[in-house]
Design a protein that fits this description.
The complex is a heterodimer of chains A (about 500) and B (about 500).
Chain A: H1 8-14, E1 16-26, H2 65-77, E2 81-82, E3 89-92, E4 102-105, E5 112-121, E6 124-137, E7 141-145, E8 157-161, E9 168-174, H3 184-202, E10 214-223, E11 234-239, H4 242-261, E12 269-274, E13 279-285, E14 295-296, H5 307-314, H6 321-332, H7 336-344, H8 348-356, H9 361-379, H10 390-401, H11 407-418, H12 424-431, H13 439-452, H14 454-461, H15 468-478, H16 485-496
Parallel strand pairs in A: 11-12
Antiparallel strand pairs in A: 1-9, 1-10, 2-5, 3-4, 3-14, 5-6, 6-9, 7-8, 10-11, 12-13
Helix pairs in contact in A: 1-4, 3-4, 8-9, 8-10, 10-11, 11-12, 13-15, 15-16
Chain B: H1 2-6, H2 9-17, H3 23-41, E1 44-47, H4 49-64, E2 76-80, H5 107-114, E3 118-123, H6 157-164, E4 170-174, H7 181-187, E5 190-193, E6 214-218, H8 221-231, H9 249-254, E7 262-266, H10 276-291, E8 295-299, H11 307-322, H12 343-354, H13 357-370, H14 376-399, E9 402-406, H15 422-427, H16 433-438, E10 441-450, E11 453-461, H17 467-484
Parallel strand pairs in B: 2-3, 2-4, 7-8, 7-9
Antiparallel strand pairs in B: 1-3, 4-6, 5-6, 5-10, 9-11, 10-11
Classes of the chains: A alpha+beta (about 500), B alpha/beta (about 500).
C-alpha cells in the first residue's frame, strides 16, 4: 500500500522541510534504573526481574546513581545546562509490557536542557540545537505470536519478557531543525552518527543501533518557505539504522509533498518505518492518542546534582567532536577532501581505532573507504556494523606489508574474516592464501610464462618493459593469484631485461 | 487467659523473657480469642495460625538458647492487609488481589520479624485503604467492639478492632488521611502516624504515595512507642524514607511530661459539625494538660478550610496511577480470559469486576484531575493549597511545640449510615488529613466516652519530632487512668462466648 510520492528533488524545490529527532540511548549500567536487577542482554526471559521492575504491589523504585551520572555526562557533552534540581514524572498509559502501567520518565523538568551538537556534512558545519535530555526506564518486550502483522492486533497470543523493563534510557530531543533544505536527510543521518560516536566516546552505552542501544524517532514537516509557520508533522518510529534515518526523512518529504501538492492536509500521526521496503506506513493517529497524565513521581525524591559533582564530571568528558576531527586531520595528514570523504563514510572512529592498532592512516582509509565501504553498501548495512574489527584491518595491512599476501588475496582474507573464519592470520592459514615466496617455484612459473608467450618476451627483450604485465598475469594464473606481483615483475625483468 | 489477653505488650514480652510465659502460650491465647470472637468483630481477613505458632516457637527457642530478646519479642501482632508478607495472602481488602501471595516481605514486616514479633494474621480494611469505616472492604465490614452495630473507623478498622477486642496486643496500621488515628479514636486505642518518611513504605501497597505512612497501633502509649521504634528508621529501598535518626519515642513515652510545653489549639478544627460531647472532652483534656504545666494558646491555620478539597484531588490523582498496575497481566484477578478477548478487553473486564465502587470513584476523579487541560486547575491548585497548609503548620510551630484537636468530629457512626453519602464519609477525616498533606507526625489517644463510645484526642508534632506526641500521650494516659481507675478499654463490653444469632 505504497502512497503517492513526489520526486525528492521536486519536493525540496517546492517545500522547506523541518525535522525533529528523538533519540533513545540505552545506558550500559550494570543494573537497572530503579532496582538492582542485571541489564545483561540475552538472558532467559523473565530471569532478570524482581518485585520492583515487575511492578508488584508495594514495591518501590530507587534511583541508580550511575545512570544519573551518565545522564549528566551526556548532557554536558551536548553542551546542555544541567538542572540544579529536577524530578521524575509518571507517564501513565496502559500496555501489557508496562509493569506498572506508567513509565517513570521526566516531563517538564529534564536533567539536561538547552544544548547543541555540531555535525559536519560535506565539509560544512551544521549546528543541531538540543532541547533536552531526560532519563526514563525502558518497558518490557512483547512478542506477538500468530496473526499476519506481528503486532498485537490479530495475534493469537502474546509473550511478555520483563528483562528489559527498567533498563535505563536517556532520551535526547532536538529543537526543530530548520534550514537544512535539500540536505535534510543527510543532516539527520550525520546528527545521529555524531551522537552515536559521542555516546560511544563517553562510554555510557554500547551505542549499537542494530542491537537497539540507540533508537530513533524522526519528526518531519513541510512548509512552503522558511517564512511560514511550521507545518503538521508526522513522527516516524522504528528508525533503527543510519540508513533508515536518512531514508525515512527522504521518504516523508516526498510523501508529504505529494499530500500537500494534492491540496490535502498532512495527518498528525505516528508512522512506522519499514526497513525492508524503505517506506513509512501509518501507525496510530495522534488525534486519538492518549493523554499521558504526567505528574511528579511521588515515590522518588527530587534529584539535585551537586555543582561540584557536575564540574568533576565535566572534567571526564571526551574531546569535543569538532576539535577531535581537526586533531585527527592533522595527525593523519589528510587533505580536506580526504577528511570529508572519511566523515561522510562515518569512518572516522574506525580509522582512528585501526591506526591505534598500528596501521598507517592512509592504508586504514584505503581499506575502510574502498573495499569495506563497498561491502557494507552491498550488504545494506553501516560500515561500523559490517562485523569487521579495526584490529583485523590493521592485521591485514600488516600481512600485505610483510609480503605474506597481496591486495587481491587480502580481499579473500576479508571474505574469510567476515564469514567468521577467525583472525586474518587464521584465514590465511586455513584458506592457504599466502603468496608463493619459494624462489624456485616462482622462477619455474616465470620460465613457463616466457615459454607460453614468446612474442611478449621478445617485446620485453626489445626494451618494452610495460609488456611485462601480460607475463605477470600468466604467472598469477599459474599460481592462483598467490604471488607478489612486484617480485614476479622483478624476476621477469631480471630474466629478460637489458642485463640478461 | 484473660490476664494474657488484657496484658500490655511490654509486660507480655517481659514475662516471656523471664520464662514465666512462652511466646507459644501467648500466641495460642490470642489465636483462641480470635477463634472465639472474630465471627462477630471480623477484624481479620486471614489468620496465619501455623506461621504465627512457628514464629512464636522460634522466639521460645531463641530464649532457651540464651539469645538476647528485644523488648517486644514473642508478642503477637495484627498486620493491616495492605503490607506484603511473603507467602501469606495479601489482598488490601480488594477482590483484585484475592488469593495473591506476595513473594517478598515489606520492610516493616522484616523489622517485625527481626524483633521477634509474632504476626497473627492480616486485618480487614477499606479496599486499598479508601474509606473511613472499613465498610469498603470487599470482604465485609469490621464491627466496633464497643458497639457491634457501629464502625471501628477506617481504613484500618481491622487493626483497631483487633486491639479493642483483645485479639492482639499490638497492630500495624497505615495512615493516608487518618486511617490509623481515626480508628484509634473510635475504638479507644492508641494510634500514631509517624512523620512522613519515618517508616519505610517498601512493601506497603500504595494508595497515595506522598501521603501514606505506616505506624504503630496499641492499647497503651509505651507499647505504641516500642513498636514505633521497631518499625522506624531509614530504608534504602524507599527513596522517600528519612535519613535522620529515629526520634526517642520510647524515652518520651516512659517520661511523659508537659511542663513548660507550649500547646496550640487549632481554631479551625472545632465548632459546627462537631459533636458537643467530643468538643467537651477535648476542652477538658486541654485543661488537664494546662493543669499539668503546659502553656495553652490558640492558633489559627486558615488554609485547613481547603484541606479536604485539596486532599480529595491529590489522593485520587496518585491513587489512579498507583492502581494502574492491577491489570490482570502478572498477578491477581483475571476476568474474561477465554482466548477470544484481547489483552485490553481482559484488562477492562478485570478492573471493572475487581474494583469496588469507591475505588472506581477515586480512580475516575484522579484520572480527571490529571488530564491535560485540567491538571493546573485541579492537581496543580491542590498542590498549592498543600504548600499553604505546610506554611500554616510552620507558622503555628513557630509559636508552639505541639498542636491539638479532636481526632474525629464525632464518635463511631452506625454501619451503613454514611455509605451512600461519600462527602459525609470524607468529612470524618477532617481533623486528621491536614497532617498527611504536610507530612508531620500525629497521634490519637483515648480521652473519654460519650454515650458509651470512645473519644479521641489528636496531638500533632513537627516533622521528625514524633517524640513530642508520646510525651503528651503518656501524661494523658497517666492522669486519665487515675481518674477512671484503670484503662478505658476495661469498659469495653465483653464479647466472651460464641454469640448465637448474628
Amino acid at each position: 500500500m505504497s502512497e503517492t510520492l513526489v520526486d525528492y528533488d521536486t519536493a525540496v524545490a517546492q517545500w522547506d522541510p523541518v525535522m525533529g529527532l528523538e533519540v533513545h540511548v540505552e545506558l550500559n549500567t550494570a543494573s537497572k534504573m530503579f532496582c538492582g536487577c542485571s541489564t545483561a542482554f540475552g538472558a532467559a526471559p523473565n530471569t532478570n526481574v524482581c518485585p520492583v521492575c515487575l511492578g508488584l504491589p508495594g514495591a518501590m523504585p530507587t534511583v541508580n546513581a550511575k545512570a544519573i551520572e551518565s545522564a549528566i555526562r551526556i548532557g554536558l557533552a551536548l553542551n546542555c545546562s544541567i538542572a540544579p534540581w529536577c524530578r521524575f514524572a509518571r507517564k501513565n498509559y496502559f500496555y501489557p509490557d508496562m509493569p506498572k502501567n506508567y513509565q517513570i520518565s521526566q516531563y517538564d523538568e529534564p536533567i539536561a536542557h538547552d544544548g547543541w551538537l555540531d555535525v559536519e556534512v560535506d565539509g560544512e558545519t551544521f549546528r543541531i540545537e538540543i532541547e533536552r535530555a531526560h532519563m526514563e526506564e525502558d518497558t518490557g518486550k512483547s512478542t506477538h505470536v500468530g496473526g499476519a502483522t506481528g503486532r498485537i492486533h490479530g495475534a493469537d497470543y502474546s509473550l511478555l519478557d520483563f528483562n528489559r523493563a527498567g533498563v535505563p534510557l536517556i532520551e535526547i530531543v532536538t529543537r526543530p531543525i530548520v534550514g537544512a533544505g535539500e540536505r535534510a536527510p543527510q543532516i539527520a543521518r550525520a546528527y545521529v552518527a555524531a551522537l552515536r560516536d559521542l555516546i560511544k566516546a563517553l562510554g555510557v552505552s554500547e551505542a549499537r543501533m542494530e542491537q537497539g542501544n540507540l533508537r530513533c524517532d524522526v519528526n518531519v514537516s513541510l512548509r512552503p518557505s522558511p517564512e511560514h509557520e511550521l507545518g503538521t508533522r508526522t513522527e516516524t518510529k522504528n528508525v533503527n539504522s543510519l540508513r533508515s534515518v536518512e531514508g525515512s526523512v527522504r521518504y516523508e518529504i516526498s510523501r508529504q509533498a505529494a499530500v500537500l501538492d494534492d491540496g490535502q492536509a498532512v495527518h498528525q500521526e505516528t508512522r512506522m518505518w519499514q526497513e525492508s521496503t524503505g517506506i513509512t506506513t501509518p501507525g496510530r493517529s495522534k488525534e486519538t492518542a492518549e493523554d499521558y497524565r504526567y505528574f511528579p513521581e511521588p515515590d522518588l525524591v527530587p534529584i539535585a546534582p551537586d555543582a561540584d559533582w557536575v564540574e568533576r564530571l565535566r572534567a571526564t568528558l571526551p574531546e569535543p567532536p569538532a576539535q577531535r576531527l581537526r586533531r585527527l586531520q592533522k595527525e593523519w595528514g589528510f587533505t580536506d577532501a580526504e577528511l570529508r570523504d572519511v566523515v561522510n563514510a562515518e569512518a572516522t572512529g574506525l580509522i582512528e581505532e585501526t591506526v591505534a592498532e598500528g596501521c598507517s592512516p592512509a592504508a586504514a582509509r584505503k581499506w575502510w573507504l574502498t573495499e569495506l565501504a563497498r561491502r557494507a553498501n552491498e550488504a545494506g548495512t553501516e560500515l561500523s556494523e559490517l562485523g569487521m574489527r579495526p584490529k583485523a584491518v590493521a592485521d591485514i595491512q600488516q600481512l600485505v606489508e610483510a609480503g605474506t599476501i597481496n591486495d587481491k588475496l587480502a580481499r579473500q582474507v576479508i571474505d574469510g574474516v567476515l564469514a567468521g573464519e577467525g583472525t586474518p592470520a587464521e584465514v590465511v592459514a586455513a584458506r592457504g592464501l599466502a603468496v608463493v615466496s619459494d624462489d624456485g617455484a616462482l622462477s619455474h612459473a616465470v620460465d613457463a610464462a616466457i615459454g607460453n608467450n614468446p612474442a611478449v618476451a621478445d617485446k620485453i627483450r626489445a626494451g618494452r618493459v610495460q609488456a611485462a604485465g601480460a607475463l605477470i598475469g600468466d604467472v598469477m594464473k599459474q599460481l592462483g593469484g598467490k604471488a607478489d606481483a612486484a617480485k614476479v615483475r622483478e624476476l621477469i625483468l631480471t630474466k629478460l631485461g637489458p642485463g640478461a | 487467659m484473660t490476664e494474657i489477653l488484657r496484658a500490655a505488650a511490654t509486660d507480655l514480652a517481659a514475662a516471656i523473657a523471664a520464662g514465666e510465659l512462652s511466646s507459644v502460650e501467648v500466641t495460642r491465647a490470642h489465636l483462641d480469642r480470635i477463634a472465639e470472637v472474630d465471627d462477630r468483630v471480623h477484624a481479620f481477613l486471614h489468620v496465619d495460625t501455623e506461621g504465627a505458632l512457628a514464629q512464636a516457637a522460634a522466639v521460645d527457642a531463641d530464649r532457651a538458647a540464651g539469645k538476647e530478646l528485644g523488648p517486644l519479642a514473642g508478642v503477637p501482632l495484627a498486620l493491616k492487609d495492605v503490607l506484603t508478607q511473603r507467602g501469606v495472602p495479601t489482598t488490601a481488602g480488594s477482590k483484585m488481589l484475592e488469593g495473591y501471595l506476595p513473594p517478598y516481605d515489606a520492610t516493616v514486616v522484616s523489622r517485625l520479624r527481626e524483633a521477634g514479633i509474632v504476626i497473627l494474621g492480616k486485618t480487614n480494611m477499606d479496599e486499598f485503604a479508601m474509606g473511613s469505616s472499613t465498610e469498603n472492604s470487599a470482604y465485609g465490614p469490621t464491627h466496633n467492639p464497643w458497639d457491634l452495630d457501629r464502625t471501628p473507623g477506617g481504613s484500618g478498622g481491622g487493626s483497631a478492632a483487633a486491639l479493642a477486642a483483645f485479639e492482639a496486643p499490638l497492630a500495624i496500621g497505615t495512615d493516608t488521611g487518618g486511617s490509623i488515628r481515626q480508628p484509634a479514636a473510635v475504638t479507644g486505642t492508641v494510634g500514631v502516624k509517624p512523620t512522613y518518611g519515618g517508616v519505610s513504605r517498601y512493601g506497603l501497597i500504595a494508595l497515595a504515595s506522598s501521603l501514606d505512612q505506616v505506624g504503630p497501633c496499641a492499647r497503651n502509649v509505651l507499647d505504641a512507642a516500642l513498636l514505633h521504634r521497631v518499625i522506624a528508621g531509614h530504608d534504602p529501598r524507599d527513596s522517600t524514607s528519612a535519613a535522620a535518626a529515629v526520634p526517642d519515642v520510647v524515652g518520651a513515652a516512659r517520661h511523659g511530661d508537659v511542663r513548660g510545653m507550649r500547646i496550640g489549639v487549632i481554631r479551625e478544627l472545632g465548632g459546627e459539625g462537631y459533636l458537643p460531647a467530643v468538643e467537651q472532652a477535648f476542652h477538658d483534656t486541654v485543661e488537664l494538660l494546662s493543669a499539668q504545666g503546659a502553656e495553652v494558646v490558640e492558633v489559627s491555620c486558615p488554609s485547613f478550610d481547603h484541606a479536604l478539597s485539596a486532599y480529595y484531588l491529590i489522593l485520587p490523582a496518585e491513587a489512579s496511577s498507583n492502581l494502574s498496575r492491577f491489570d490482570a497481566m502478572r498477578y491477581g484477578l483475571r476476568v474474561g480470559d477465554d482466548g477470544e478477548h484481547s489483552a485490553e478487553q481482559v484488562m477492562n473486564a478485570t478492573r471493572g469486576a475487581g474494583f469496588g465502587a469507591e475505588v472506581k470513584r477515586r480512580i475516575m476523579i484522579g484520572t480527571y484531575a490529571l488530564s491535560a487541560g485540567y491538571y493546573d486547575a485541579y492537581y496543580g491548585t491542590a498542590q498549592k493549597v498543600r504548600t499553604l497548609i505546610i506554611r500554616d503548620f510552620d507558622a503555628a510551630f513557630e509559636q508552639v511545640d505541639v498542636l491539638v484537636s479532636p481526632t474525629t468530629p464525632t464518635t463511631a457512626f452506625r454501619l451503613g449510615e454514611r455509605v451512600d453519602d461519600p462527602l459525609a464519609m470524607y468529612k470524618y477525616d477532617l481533623c486528621t488529613l491536614p497532617t498527611n498533606l504536610a507530612g508531620n507526625a500525629a497521634g490519637s489517644f483515648p480521652v473519654g466516652l460519650a454515650d458509651g463510645l470512645p473519644i479521641g484526642f489528636q496531638v500533632i508534632a513537627p516533622p521528625l519530632a514524633d517524640e513530642r506526641i508520646y510525651r503528651v500521650g503518656a501524661v494523658l494516659e497517666r492522669e486519665l487512668r487515675a481518674q477512671w481507675g484503670g484503662p478505658l478499654l476495661d469498659r469495653v463490653p465483653a464479647l466472651n462466648g460464641k454469640q448465637e444469632q448474628r
